[in-house]
From TrEMBL:
Molecular function in Gene Ontology: protochlorophyllide reductase activity
Organism: Paulinella micropora
Keyword Mitochondrion (UniProt): no
Record flagged with keyword Zinc-finger: no
Family designation: Belongs to the short-chain dehydrogenases/reductases (SDR) family. POR subfamily.
BP GO annotations: chlorophyll biosynthetic process; photosynthesis
Protein name: protochlorophyllide reductase
Entry's EC annotation: 1.3.1.33
Keywords, alphabetical: Chlorophyll biosynthesis, NADP, Oxidoreductase, Photosynthesis, Plastid
NCBIfam families in the cross-refs: LPOR
Pathway: Porphyrin-containing compound metabolism; chlorophyll biosynthesis
SUPFAM superfamilies: NAD(P)-binding Rossmann-fold domains
């Protein structure tokens, strides 16, 4: 049952703990991170067996770096049996947008477009794998799903791609939002995660039958103490984990989030394509997984086709 999985964003948080879980279950991990030295130190601190990890460099916000990374992975002798798109930036306090080398707003560029391109470039290698259960997984989130309470919070606005006129216009600065409207950094993150969940559905529709690859997304719970929240106000960082532990009950440790990702990568229980996984009783190790319904926009086939086609244009393939 062992295989090789590529995970992006492995220097901290969910990605790092996913490596820990998968290595301990005998998998080989191709760790794709911005800063390999930082990542190695983080892995050593968790005593992750370095013999089971191959490091490759990637900056998901730069499509040229994504292409270079994909070339390096293609040339690795081992097969690639699974891919976990985990890296993300969350920059809710930006006054002005940060723009990627290709001219795109950085949260959408990193979280969605970088991963979208990586998947396109690695699909052939995953198709070539003879592993009995090949999988492509993207981390989604509750705040980008209006079917859940967390997705209804209007701070600064719920995820909404609108008519995708920002993508259609080429998404070049000064256009910074998928819907072509005013820049809202917190919403840019949610929109990018909505694109992640839409991508999984569209991959399933287009490729599952012909390739037998399993495509799924997941929300492991609120991992409130990862560095993802490093750009939120200090008071928020102090209160948020307590709030999620004591009030909402949504808090999940990094260790448990990593275990959940590992299960979605390798367990027969998660061998279902085109679905979004979530867990009830989020804080408990025996909390049961279930298939979470997604918002109308995330499930809409016309929107998904448009996101796919426009993303193909934006990553230039
Ligand atoms: P972290 O900030 O701990 O991890 C994010 C990782 O992404 C880091 O390794 C970071 O590396 C990497 N990264 C950021 N930008 C880039 C880039 N341009 N190129 C390559 N790598 C990059 O956050 P989490 O572990 O919390 O988040 C992981 C995933 O889980 C995200 O997709 C997030 O949306 C999702 N998620 C998290 C939840 C939570 O409550 N924490 C809840 C739901 C979903 P670096 O060290 O270089 O910055």
């Amino acid at each position: 049952n062992h295989g090789t999985v590529l995970i992006t964003g492995t220097s901290s948080g969910v990605g790092l703990y996913s490596v820990k879980a998968l290595v301990s279950k005998g998998w080989h991990v191709v760790s794709a991170s911005r800063d390999i030295e930082k990542t190695k130190l983080a892995m050593d601190a968790l005593q992750i067996n370095s013999d089971q990890v191959t490091h490759v460099q990637i900056d998901l916000g730069d499509l040229e770096s994504v292409k270079a990374c994909a070339r390096e992975v293609q040339s690795l002798t081992s097969s690639l049996d699974a891919l976990v798109c985990n890296a993300a930036v969350y920059l809710p306090r930006l006054k002005d947008p940060i723009i990627s080398p290709q001219g795109y707003e950085i949260s959408m560029a990193t979280n969605h477009l970088g991963h979208f391109l990586l998947i396109q470039l690695l699909l052939s290698k995953i198709k070539d794998s003879t592993h009995h259960s090949r999988r492509v997984i993207i981390l989604g989130t509750v705040t980008a799903n209006s079917k859940e309470l967390g997705g209804k919070i209007p701070i600064p606005a719920p995820a909404d791609l609108g008519d995708l006129s920002g993508f259609e216009a080429g998404f070049q600065f000064p256009v910074t939002m998928a819907n072509g409207k005013k820049f809202k950094p917190g919403k840019a993150y949610k929109d990018s995660k909505l694109c992640n969940m839409i991508t999984v559905r569209e991959l399933h529709r287009r490729l599952h039958q012909s390739s037998n690859i399993i495509f799924s997304s997941l929300y492991p719970g609120c991992v409130a103490d990862t560095p993802l929240f490093r750009n939120t106000p200090k008071a928020f960082q102090a209160i948020f984990p307590w709030f999620q532990k004591s009030i909402t009950g949504g808090y999940v440790s990094q260790e448990l989030a990593g275990e959940r990702v590992a299960d979605v990568v390798m367990s027969p229980t998660f061998a279902q394509s085109g679905v979004h996984w979530s867990w009830g009783n989020r804080q408990r190790k025996d909390g049961k997984q279930f298939i979470q319904e997604l918002s109308n926009q995330a499930s809409d086939e016309v929107t998904a086709k448009k996101v796919w086609d426009l993303s193909m244009n934006l990553v230039n393939i």
